Amino acid sequence: MASLKDLIRKAQDIRHQDDVEIPEWVPGARFRVTGLPSGDWEAYQNSLTKMTRKDSADGIEMSVKSRKAEIVAKALRDQETGELVFPDLREGIAILSQRSAGIVGGLFELCRHLSDDSKDYTQRVQEAEAGFGDGQS
User: Fold this and answer.
1) What does the H/E/C string look like for 6-43?
2) Interval 65-77: pLDDT, tens
3) How many domains would you assign to the chain?
4) Which helix (H) or strand (E) segment is 111 a member of?
5) Which of 23, 27, 39, 105 lies most in the core, judged by the most C-beta atoms within 10 Å?
6) Which SS3 state, helix, strand or coil, does residue 2 take?
C-alpha cells in the first residue's frame, strides 16, 4: 500500500477548464486554462507589493506591479496536447504583455478562480470540512 505522502504526491488536485475559446487570437482553437500549484501562486502573491526605502523626506515608497501576463503564460495550455502554449516563460510574458488587457485579465481571473484564490477564507474552510464527510473523528 502506498504511503500517505506518495498518495498526496500523485493526487491530481490542480483544477482546469477546457474549451476556452479566444476567437480574437485564434478563431476555432480551444485552450485549457489551469490553476497554479500552491508554490507558484504564493510566489505571485508575494511579488505583488514591493516597498523600497528612499533617503528623502518622502520616507518609504510602495509600488504594486502586475504579473497577470506571467500567470496566464503559466496557465494557458493547448487543449489537445496539454502542453504549455508558452514553454518559454519570458517569451510568453513578452507576447501576452502586448495583447488585449481585457482578454489577459479575463484569463487571469479564470486562473485565479481555478487556483481557489477567488474564495474567501470561510469558503475554503467550509469546503475543506465538507471534504472530510463522515470520516471525521
Assistant:
1) HHHHHCCCCCEEEEEECCCCCCCCEEEEECCCHHHHHH
2) 678 999 999 999 9
3) 1
4) helix 101-114
5) 105
6) coil
Structure confidence at residue 113 (pLDDT) = 93
Say how far apart CA 23 and CA 34 lie, in whole Å.
Answer: 19
Closest CA to 14 of 95, 101, 77: 77
**Cell (9 digits) for 89:** 516563460
31, 76 contact by CB (below 8 A): yes
Tell me which residue range forms the domain holding 72: 15-38+66-118
Residue 1 lies in a domain: no
If pLDDT is split at 50, 70 and 90, which confidence band does 137 have? very low
Q: Average pLDDT in the 52-79 region?
A: 77
pTM above 0.85, yes or no: no
Q: In the structure grid, which three cell numbers stand for residue 104, read together?
A: 489577459
